[in-house]
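Re: weekly structure request thread

Next one in the queue (60 aa):
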Amino acid sequence: MNTTTESKAKGASPVNSTPEKAQAKKRPSKGMRKHNRKVKQEARRVSVPGSEVKKNKRPV
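Done, posted below.
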């Protein structure tokens, strides 16, 4: 009988099985930030109707 009460006391319920987000997200590295900016800029250029878009692809 004590094993069930001990497991509940420790917080082993299935509701709380997901880990909490205690740590803050790390900021992206300099290279990843540069990549994200270029991708967003490219998406903005493509989304404007009637504008000419550069056809050269980014290196992956």
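The radius of gyration is 24 Å. The helical segments are 2-9, 30-47.
Next request, please.
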